[in-house]
Amino acid sequence: MRIDVVTIFPEFFGVLDISLLGRARQSGIIEFEAHDLRAFTHDRHRTVDDTPYGGGAGMVMKPGPWGEALDTILGEPDSAEPGPVVIFPSPAGEPFTQRMARELATRDHLVFGCGRYEGIDQRVFEHTATRAEVRLVSLGDYVLNGGEVAVMAMIEAIGRLIPGVVGNPESLVEESHEDGLLEYPSYTKPANWRGLEVPPILLSGNHRAIDEWRHEQQLERTRRVRPDLLPPA
Ligand code: ADE
């Protein structure tokens, strides 16, 4: 998979050199590039924002540098391919979910556009939609200063679903959200730690009973903290 990010803070993405995703890049499973939006400006101050039409607080990102950056990354459309998906993180977007991560993990080319300030000129989304699939995506119902942290989270969630990135693919199956429920609690040695015992069933060797106990734990946890995930009774 190829991932391009457009941002005014390309150095922010240096952390992608480490950990699982760093290894995936070294082995060539993921090809990653962060592009500096200011490289597509033409004034001395490398200006990327301006005051909003209609007034209001804050600044809006100018369409010009975005257009040039996306021209460079998207190039000529190739009608035979499904084509790139261009994702703009935004608190006004559709919610990012495990289902969306799974879907995006099957694509060959993802482009992320990190907005700052009060957002990006609306015409950037409209124009980009004439040559690529565009999605506005929100990480949750809160406001970040810019899209970079949201993009890091999305790249991690998507990247680990690409075959070969996570060493043991079975570990992906039993996680929170993969079966619509939160995951069950986990324990490791020692069996008694600071007076707290591991639930005896996990030491029983009875795998059917363990599976049932874990499923019960998943249901209980989901009912307690995320009842919205359960189908209506
Ligand atoms: N940018 C600012 N806030 C955001 C959010 N909640 N999700 C995604 N991108 C954002």
Strand content: 15-25%
Provide the gyration radius in Å.
22 Å
Query: How would you state the average pLDDT, rounded?
Result: 95
Which shape, going by the Cα principal axes?
Answer: elongated
How many helical elements? Answer: 7
From the N-terminal CA to the C-terminal CA, the straight-line distance is: 41 Å
In the sheet with the most strands, the strands line up as 2-1-6-5-7
Distinct small molecules bound, one entry per kind: adenine
Return the string of H and E elements.
EHEEEHEHEHEHHEEH
Stretches where pLDDT falls below 50 for ≥5 residues?
A: none
Largest sheet: 5 strands, parallel
Count of distinct strands: 9
Helix- and strand-based class?
A: alpha/beta
Percent of residues in helices:
25-40%
Pfam family, one: tRNA_m1G_MT
Keywords: Cytoplasm, Methyltransferase, S-adenosyl-L-methionine, Transferase, tRNA processing
Binding site for S-adenosyl-L-methionine: 115, 139-144
Function: Specifically methylates guanosine-37 in various tRNAs.
